[in-house]
What does this fold into?
Amino acid sequence: MEDSESSRKFAKSAETSKNSLLAAMSITLVLQLFMAGAFLYMIGWINTLQIILHLPMINILVPSNVNVFFQTIIPVVTFDLIPTEYSTELVMEFEEFPEEQFTNRFNA
It folds into this structure.
């Protein structure tokens, strides 16, 4: 997609849509504690979005603005509410390994 004023406006509106969908999904998850039926509707909605987002994988041609919208919505559909860099550091600990090799068997 060419870099023009309309494409920038579309990208901005797609980003706003993503934020709105994230907020709606978060609110629905909280409300699920009080209303069990709403959660089933949200899961059905997410399932439908997941199916629609797989259309390019089966070579169905879509316009470039739809591809931009798909790229924006993918984090919502894959439940990436918390950035993986942040959530990985919260859950796991990684040790820094020294630069030298553990064994010489890997030398060619």
User: Anything to note?
Assistant: The chain has a mean pLDDT of 78. Residues 9 and 96 are 43 Å apart (CA to CA). The longest helix spans residues 5-31.
